[in-house]
Amino acid sequence: MSQQLSQIKRRAMESRTREQSKPSLPGLMEVTHGSEVTLSVKTPIGRLYQVSSVFIGTNGRDKLFIELPKVNKLEREQFFQIGYRMTIKAVSEKGEGALVNVRTQISHILTEPVPLLVVDIPPQIDVVQLRKEPRYAVNLEGKIVLPSRTLNVLLKDLSTSGCSFFIEANGPTIEINNVVTVEVIHPKTDVIYPLSGKVCNHQQLGVNKQLGIEFDQSGQQAVRELMNKLMFDGAKLSFKQ
């Protein structure tokens, strides 16, 4: 089982009371293009196959596009056929965050010029809200001091309970449940805001790695102090000029 699938199942169990059905197109707009998804394919005789792939997008009407997973010839012939039922699980980190669950079927399979799965967009999708509060887009840089190096990060969003951020493409792997501290430094006063907590998820977005952390008590105190120093610049929260 892939780590992405394990994260999805764990977070779904934690948040299943907040599951609801939504119209498909607005819900799918919450999924980031290029993000990792998990495919569960069921054959007509009931065999189940699970694999990770990449979400590409929709045509805005009735079709959804997924990268054809990198599988061998036998697996492709056995599990990727037009008409086979498929469930797509994706994580949206926007706003309150959500697990998106799409039940559909394969309508087209392309191998040239690019490997592509085309599936039908159903009228409704299942969405499980992950957080009790929204995260806000931010324009902030930070760093994580590791034993062997200092890792520069770019914060993507922020709330009083957690944040997500990008790390360098060639950066080290930070495992789920590891405790880290993202240090955000005020550009004028040099005050350091240590956002500490445990890693609760990570995704591969193209060549970039995105991690999410849930703040501990010290991190929650630091983020409240940090957010008092931020203002909306028209698109994101950033330090007051």
From TrEMBL:
Region (Disordered): 1-28
Domain PilZ, residue spans: 129-231
Top-level division of the source organism's lineage: Bacteria
Keywords recorded for this protein, A-Z: Bacterial flagellum, c-di-GMP, Cell projection, Cilium, Flagellum, Nucleotide-binding
Nucleotide-binding recorded as keyword: yes
UniProt entry tagged with the keyword Signal: no
Gene Ontology MF terms in the entry: cyclic-di-GMP binding
Residue spans of biased composition, Basic and acidic residues class: 11-21
Chain ranges of the Type III secretion system flagellar brake protein YcgR PilZN domain: 33-122
Coiled-coil annotated residue ranges, if any: none
The protein's name in its UniProt record: Flagellar brake protein
